TrEMBL record:
<comment type="similarity">
    <text>Belongs to the phosphoglycerate kinase family.</text>
</comment>
<feature type="binding site">
    <location>
        <position position="323"/>
    </location>
    <ligand>
        <name>ATP</name>
    </ligand>
</feature>
<keyword id="KW-0067">ATP-binding</keyword>
<keyword id="KW-0547">Nucleotide-binding</keyword>
<dbReference type="GO" id="GO:0016301">
    <property type="term" value="F:kinase activity"/>
</dbReference>
<comment type="pathway">
    <text>Carbohydrate degradation; glycolysis; pyruvate from D-glyceraldehyde 3-phosphate: step 2/5.</text>
</comment>
<feature type="binding site">
    <location>
        <position position="292"/>
    </location>
    <ligand>
        <name>ATP</name>
    </ligand>
</feature>
<keyword id="KW-0963">Cytoplasm</keyword>
<comment type="subunit">
    <text>Monomer.</text>
</comment>
<keyword id="KW-0808">Transferase</keyword>
<dbReference type="Pfam" id="PF00162">
    <property type="entry name" value="PGK"/>
</dbReference>
<protein>
    <recommendedName>
        <fullName>Phosphoglycerate kinase</fullName>
        <ecNumber>2.7.2.3</ecNumber>
    </recommendedName>
</protein>
<feature type="binding site">
    <location>
        <begin position="19"/>
        <end position="21"/>
    </location>
    <ligand>
        <name>substrate</name>
    </ligand>
</feature>
<dbReference type="InterPro" id="IPR015824">
    <property type="entry name" value="Phosphoglycerate_kinase_N"/>
</dbReference>
<feature type="binding site">
    <location>
        <position position="35"/>
    </location>
    <ligand>
        <name>substrate</name>
    </ligand>
</feature>
<keyword id="KW-0324">Glycolysis</keyword>
<dbReference type="InterPro" id="IPR036043">
    <property type="entry name" value="Phosphoglycerate_kinase_sf"/>
</dbReference>
Length: 395
């Protein structure tokens, strides 16, 4: 696999697949530019070598053609500020205008193409569409780990049309850090799994049971475990058809000598809102009409004690509804414990994308852990042992 460091971009037009699927507010202002900042090293290397960069990305989920709210033109002010230069914009990702702008691009210049998903062919992995994109540049750089699990035209199929296929710094860092967790974990190794559903995490939980010492389970998925063990969960989140699966996970953990740590108390609310009435109850004792929205103080103590003694930490998924300030305490406490383990105990900590990345950045701890993945679903699939089309296409 060619890497950015091993390739000289002098005089080359690099077609770079980036992941600029960033959140925008109602005024089209970017509210979190983490993914844009992550691409600075790759794009800077291309420009410093004397090459030019043609950036391709998707944004949101357009229904079937161009939509104003999903136009990448809204990113231009941030990109200009980030890279300290004008960024040109093609109002289409294929066609004559894109061709002309790409052809006239000079070394040191950046061109941003319009949203790839304005064409259905992108997600279908259409070869003809991939070929049209490929005609715009000399070398293909894939730096979009967040979409590497999709066999889309720009993330995988384009590789067929280039002799020079280069792995960007974001992609490389994601793979290196995941490998560190999967193959080189120092012990004790603790995985913290949160989020809403067991069904989203079952494959990674099963794989981790072969490697971790401790498995902490928090978030909405815990109520399915509690119910399966005969506890009362009120109107908390429940995957009724996954209760047997929850019991199987507990049994497998026992068989493999994995210390599985579950909440002992919960912060509950009488409504799904930040201003709801709330109280703390023991796990399995949630009354009717109430729902669990965070882990309780005893659980925080229990979880942090394990985390702070760990040498390798993987965290994927929040402990509660952290978007509500009154139910973010558990998630923030876990973030603090991970930071403490990293800074004071020399632990290697990988934050596994999605909500966990938002939570750690929101708490202001993003630069105090070992690595924050921008991958989300791609990281999970990679850690489940699946082949990612976007990675395979770089070989």
């Amino acid at each position: 696999m060619k890497t950015v460091d091993s390739y000289n971009f002098a005089g080359k037009k690099a077609l770079v697949r980036v992941d600029f699927n960033v959140p925008l507010d109602e005024n089209y202002t970017i509210t979190d530019d983490t993914r844009i900042k992550a691409t600075i090293p790759t794009i800077t290397k291309i420009l410093n070598d004397g090459g030019s960069a043609i950036l391709m990305s998707h944004l949101g989920r357009p229904k079937g053609g161009p939509e104003e709210k999903f136009s990448l033109k809204h990113l231009l002010p941030t990109l200009k500020e980030t890279f300290g230069r004008e960024v040109k914009f093609a109002d289409d990702c294929i066609g004559q205008s894109a061709k002309d702008q790409a052809a006239s691009l000079q070394p040191g210049e950046i061109l941003l193409l319009e949203n790839l998903r304005f064409y259905k062919q992108e997600e279908k992995g259409d070869e003809e569409f991939a070929k049209k994109l490929a005609e715009l540049g000399d070398v293909w750089v894939n730096d979009a780990f967040g979409t590497a699990h999709r066999a889309h035209a720009s993330t995988a199929v384009m590789g067929k049309f280039f002799d020079d296929r280069v792995c960007g710094y974001v992609m490389q860092a994601e793979l290196d850090n995941a490998k560190k967790i999967l193959e080189e974990a120092e012990r004790p190794f603790t995985a913290i799994m949160g989020g809403a559903k067991i069904s989203d995490k079952i494959l990674i939980i099963e794989r981790l049971l072969d490697t971790v010492d401790n498995l902490i389970i928090g978030g909405g998925m815990t109520y399915t475990f509690t119910k399966a063990q005969g506890g009362q969960i009120g109107k908390s989140l429940l995957e009724a058809d996954k209760q047997d699966l929850a019991l199987q996970i507990l049994e497998k953990a026992k068989e493999r000598g994995v210390n599985i740590i579950m909440p002992v108390d919960n912060v509950i609310a009488d409504d799904f809102s930040n201003d709801a009435n709330r109280q703390v109850v023991a796990t399995g004792q949630i009354p009717d009409g109430w729902e669990g929205l965070d882990i309780g103080p005893e659980t925080i103590k229990k979880f942090t004690d394990v985390i702070e003694k760990s040498k390798t930490i993987l965290w994927n998924g929040p402990m509660g509804v952290f978007e509500f300030e009154n139910f973010a305490t558990g998630t923030n406490a876990i973030a603090e414990a991970v930071v403490k383990a990293t800074e004071e105990n020399g632990a290697f900590s990988l934050i596994g994308g999605g909500d966990s990345a938002s939570a750690i950045n929101q708490a202001g701890y993003g630069d105090r852990v070992s690595y924050v993945s921008t991958g989300g679903g791609a990281l999970l699939e990679y850690m489940e042992g699946k082949t990612l089309p976007g990675v395979a296409a770089l070989a």
